[in-house]
Amino acid sequence: MPSVDPPTAGPPTIDPPLALLAELTHRCPLACPYCSNPIELERASSELHGEDWRRVLREAAALGVLQVHFSGGEPMVRRELATLIAEAASHGLYSNLITSGALGGEREIAAFAEAGLRHVQLSLQDHEAANADRIAGLAGAFERKMKFAAAVRAAGLPLTLNMVVHRQNLDGIAEMIDLAQSLGARRVEIAHVQYYAWALENRAALLPTRAQLDEATRIVEAARERLKGVLAIDYVVPDYYGVRPKSCMNGWGRQFLNVMPSGTVVPCHAAQTIPGIDFPSVREASLADIWYRSDAFNRFRGTGWMPDPCRDCDRREIDWGGCRCQALALTGDAARTDPVCALSPEHGVIEAALTEAAAAPAPFIYRRYR
Ligand code: SF4
Ligand code: SF4
C-alpha cells in the first residue's frame, strides 16, 4: 500500500502516529481489578474479523506507524494472532505482544517468533503465587506465567515484565525485581496503577499510602543503580502523589492510536468515556482520515482547547494539561485542567482520595463482563 501524505490544509503540526495499540479482544481469563479495559467490555460478537485487522495493519504501515502492540484483553484468545503478526512483519512493523501469559506456551511462542514477533511484554501481579493469583482472580495463573516466561526465553525473544503495583503488592517490590532477573527479563516496567475504568472503581483497594510509595521508590532507585547494564527498570509513579500531571499519551492524538476490539479508534484507553465525541471506526473510515481529520482526534490536540490555568502555563507543551479522561472522571468535564495538577482549582478531589488511602483497603471488584 502506498504511504499516506498528511493533509495540506489544517493544523501543520500533526505528525504521523508512532504506535498502534491493537486491542484484539476484551476477553481474558484473568480479572485484574486495575484492568485498563472499559467497564463495559466489548463482547466477542462485536470483534473485528482477522481480515479487518489485516487491513488496519496495512493502513497503519502506510500512515507511518512504526510499532504495533498486540494487546487486549488477552490477545492470544484470537486464533489468527500469528497471521496478524506475519502481516505486521510483512509491512515492516515492529510487533510487540502484551500478554497475561495465561494461555499457550512453547508451541505458540515459537509460531509467533517464526511469524516475525520481536518482543514480549508479560504481566505479573506479584512475586509470590498466592497473592498474584488472588489479584489476578485466577488460581494457577502465576504458575502458567512462569512457564510462559521460560517459553519466551527459549524462543530467543526479548522479554519485558510488566508489574502493575499498588497497595496490595507494593511491599514486595524488591522481590519482584529479583524475580524479573531470575526469569531472564531484559527490562521490567514497574508501573503504579493509573486510576481509570476498573482501577478507579477499585481506588479504595489500590491507592498506596505515602509511606509505602516512598519506601518502594527508594528500593527501585537502589536497584536501578545496582543493576545498571543488567536489567533496565522503568518506574511510573502514581500521579496522585505528584504536583504536576503526567503527559498523558504524550498529548492527545500526538503519537498513539488505539483500535478497540470492535474497530472503534480512540487516542487512549479511556477516551470513550468522554461524552459528546463520536469516536470513529475502522469499519467506516481509513486510519489516515481518523488520524488527520476526525473531530475525535482533533478535539484536544495542541493547546487551543486549554482552560486557565493551563492556557498561560509554561508546562502546557510538556504535559499538555494532563489527562482528559482523568479530568472527566474527577471533575465531570474533560476540558478542565487535570485535577492532579496542584494549580487546578479542583485539586482538592485528589487530596480527599489520598486521605481515603489511609483507611483499611476495600475488597476488590474484579473485572468481569456485566
Ligand atoms: S489487566 Fe488483567 S484482566 Fe485486564 S487484560 Fe490484562 S491480564 Fe486481562
Ligand atoms: S496548569 Fe496545566 S499545563 Fe500547567 S502544569 Fe498544571 S496541568 Fe500542566
Q: Can you give a write-up of this model?
A:
The chain is α/β, with parallel strands linked by helices and 370 residues long. Helix content is 32%, strand content 12%. It has 13 helices and nine strands. Strands 7-6-5-4-3-2-1-8-9 form a nine-stranded mixed β-sheet, covered by helices on one side. It is globular and about 55 Å long. The protein starts with 18 loop residues before the first strand and ends in a 14-residue tail after the last helix. The structure holds iron/sulfur cluster (2 copies).
Brief overview, please?
This protein has helices at residues 50-63, 81-90, 106-115, 129-136, 141-154, 173-182, 197-201, 203-206, 210-226, 287-293, 295-298, 324-331, 348-356, and strands spanning 19-23, 67-71, 94-99, 119-124, 159-165, 187-192, 232-236, 256-259, 265-266. The chain is α/β, with parallel strands linked by helices and 370 residues long. Strands 7-6-5-4-3-2-1-8-9 form a nine-stranded mixed beta sheet, with helices on one face.
Topology:
Blueprint (H helix, E strand, L loop, with lengths): L18 E5 L26 H14 L3 E5 L9 H10 L3 E6 L6 H10 L3 E6 L4 H8 L4 H14 L4 E7 L7 H10 L4 E6 L4 H5 L1 H4 L3 H17 L5 E5 L19 E4 L5 E2 L20 H7 L1 H4 L25 H8 L16 H9 L14
Parallel strand pairs: 1-2, 1-8, 2-3, 3-4, 4-5, 5-6, 6-7
Antiparallel strand pairs: 8-9
Helix pairs in contact: 1-2, 2-3, 3-5
Bound molecules: iron/sulfur cluster (2 copies).
